[in-house]
Design brief:
The chain has 3 domains: 205 residues, Clc chloride channel (Orthogonal Bundle); 199 residues, Clc chloride channel (Orthogonal Bundle); 128 residues, Roll (CBS-domain), CATH 3.10.580. By secondary structure, the chain is mainly α. It has a 3-stranded mixed β-sheet with strand order 3-4-5. A 3-stranded mixed β-sheet has the order 6-7-8. Helix content is 60%, strand content 5%. It is built from 23 helices and 8 strands. Helix 2 crosses helix 7 and helix 7 packs antiparallel against helix 8.
Length: 612
């Protein structure tokens, strides 16, 4: 520091001091880092697509080996098996293998993938064990290939996320960057499975990223696009759930689809609760959890013997339901048997996905209700195929509360543009009912039970919308730099206004800001009373501009370890115009809470107003 004409220490330049304080005066997106992450995300996208293709071929290999006794990676459905009573044993063999892999390989392979990825993002700095990258797809291939009634998409999403996390760990990225790469891998896995890049990005936003920013959106979108390009090259461009062209629904039909979606939403609540009730039942079994998948597989085999189409992934079932080829009693049996088989198997803690079984159950329920309405109330104009499409998406919207993902996914996998409006209407109804009837979701219930709450709703930061000048105190109590410590102590003892603060801006005679001194520093016993207050200032001033946000102020307080910041104007950065403290930031939130309370009271008063 240099000296003023009064002989007092003065900061040589305020702007360099501000720069050294590390204030982000002009927060900007790090474009170079986004480019780096985007390049890595494209790599993750290709890796995720490759992992998806490998897993699908492993499932085919396991299916061919166990049910048809041949070595082949060609597509095969366990529903076409001719092994007779051996179908009772094959799923149990798969359950035993998965149990051993979970116990002696990695217990993280248990479950359907997405909740585990959410937990890693929220509470594990997006770090996934390398063992999961190997054991998750292998265990899922065995579980599904031996007849497990699961979809391949959950394990593929988990594997893609694990690959993204692993790449991030190898390259020593930050936790936020690993989260982006994990979400990119998960989106790539979903896009490569279904050829649905947009809904894959929405899934990442609604269930994994917990943010909506360019730095995360761009890499995830590029990863999903890359994975879809790989799928197109390997499997073509046809929709995975092709269905006959549907017609434009009328107004009455749209209202009906809303109600149908609401009913499906309520059923999704029951499905979720039943699944976790079954999981609780397995928790009470007097055997090690390693054997639970084998116990659950007993039910899978028994049901699969009588209803073979419950075995395996079952994408052909979804296609048949949407096309109107599976109807009546056959559809009722399929839906009921698939639900029992899937819920018990998944509740046992084996490795498998939830999307395909939910789509089968929801699509079947929608088709049944739509068929009934078409037969008994034809004036509504309900198309059973559209009802099936709405049911398929609505059950996922209700179970996971991923509303936009559900709507866009059903469109992308069927390519039926006239279904978008019924889908939006039905999924919104399901979402609302689920929101009212269930606190958590099929994705978050397990985390909630572990004491790890998941905030699935997010909004703009309130402090980022409040300017410093609107919440700072303009009644600033300052201390002159040439004032003696003894005089300052006497002023504190006088009890005059402004003497109760814990920190004070120190200014020169011309009003120039010198720094901030704490009350405890002035009152310290080892400080000579003859010293000037200005001599106690040892650091450059840590300030905030009046047109910055309260979020900037809060972050800067945390970064610098201070509880108050002098507020200055950009035109005069050496003159204090206000001061903002931690209490001011809390008061800003208090105004928000007061406004919300008044709004609720206003609604209540309005509703309770007596009739004239």
């Amino acid at each position: 520091m240099t000296s003023s004409p009064d002989g007092l220490p003065v900061a040589p330049s305020l702007q360099p001091a501000l720069h050294s304080a590390g204030i982000a005066w002009q927060p900007r997106v790090d474009h170079q880092r986004i480019l780096v992450l985007s390049g890595l995300a494209i790599l993750v996208g290709f890796c995720g697509a490759a992992a998806a293709e490998i897993l699908l071929r492993l499932i085919n290999l396991a299916t061919n080996f166990f049910f048809f006794h041949r070595f082949s990676i060609g597509e095969a459905s366990p529903a076409d098996n001719t092994v007779g009573l051996l179908v009772l044993i094959i799923p149990v063999i798969g359950g035993v293998i998965v149990g051993y892999m979970a116990r002696y390989g990695s217990a993280a392979i248990r479950g359907h993938g997405i909740p585990e990825a959410m937990e890693r993002v929220l509470y594990g700095e997006s770090k996934v064990s390398p063992a999961v990258t190997f054991f998750k797809p292998l265990s899922s291939a065995i579980a599904i290939g031996t007849g497990g009634p699961f979809g391949a998409e959950g394990p593929i999403i988990a594997t893609g996320g694990a690959l993204g996390s692993l790449i991030g760990q190898v390259l020593r990225t930050t936790a936020d960057e690993r989260k982006i790469l994990l979400a990119a891998g998960a989106a790539a896995g979903m896009a490569a499975t279904f050829g649905s890049p947009v809904s894959a990005v929405l899934l990442a936003i609604e269930l994994l990223l917990f943010e909506y920013r360019a730095r995360s959106l761009v890499p995830v979108a590029l990863a999903a696009s890359a994975a879809t390009a790989v799928r197109m090259a390997l499997r073509g461009t046809a929709p995975i759930f092709a269905m006959p062209v549907i017609s434009q629904p009328g107004g009455t039909a749209l209202v009906t689809y809303v109600l149908l979606g609401a009913v499906i939403g309520y059923l999704s609540v029951l499905v979720t609760r039943a699944l976790y009730k079954i999981e609780d039942g397995f928790e009470r079994l007097p055997v090690h959890w390693m054997w639970w998948p084998a116990i659950g597989a007993v039910v899978v085999g028994a049901i699969g013997y009588f209803v073979p189409h419950t075995l395996g992934v079952g994408y052909d079932n979804i296609h048949g339901i949407l096309s109107g080829n599976i109807v009546g009693t056959t559809l009722v049996i399929l839906v009921a048997a698939k639900f029992v088989s899937w819920s018990i198997a998944l509740g046992s803690g084996t490795s498998g996905g939830t999307l395909a079984p939910l789509f089968t159950i929801g699509g079947g329920l929608g088709a049944l209700m739509g068929g009934g309405l078409e037969r008994f109330i034809p004036a509504l104009g309900v198309d059973p195929r559209v009802a099936a499409l709405v049911g398929m998406a609505a059950i996922f919207a209700g179970a996971s509360r991923a509303l936009l993902t559900s709507v866009v996914f059903a469109f992308e996998t069927t390519r039926q543009p006239l279904g978008l409006l019924p889908l939006l209407a039905g999924c919104t109804g399901a979402f609302l009912v689920s929101l009212l009837r269930m606190r958590s979701t099929i994705m978050t219930e397990r985390l909630e039970r572990r004491g790890a709450p998941v905030q699935t709703e997010y909004a703009a930061d309130y402090l980022a919308q409040v300017l410093v000048r609107d919440c700072a105190s303009t009644d600033v109590s300052t201390i002159e730099a040439d004032r003696t410590v003894e005089s300052a102590r006497a002023w504190f003892d006088s009890g005059e206004p402004g003497t109760t603060h814990q920190g004070y801006p120190v200014i020169l005679r011309d009003g120039t800001l010198l720094g901030v001194v704490m009350r405890r520093e002035i009152e310290a016993h080892d400080v000579d009373g003859a010293r000037t207050v200005g001599s106690l200032v040892t650091h450059p001033p840590i300030i905030i501009y009046e047109n910055q946000t309260a979020r900037n102020a809060a972050d800067h307080m945390v970064r610098e370890g201070v509880g108050r910041l002098p507020v200055v104007r950009r035109a005069q950065p050496d003159k204090v115009v206000a001061i903002i403290t931690r209490s001011d930031l809390l008061e800003a939130h208090e105004r928000r809470l007061d406004a919300a309370t008044k709004a609720r009271r206003g609604i209540k008063l309005y509703r309770s107003r007596p009739r004239a």
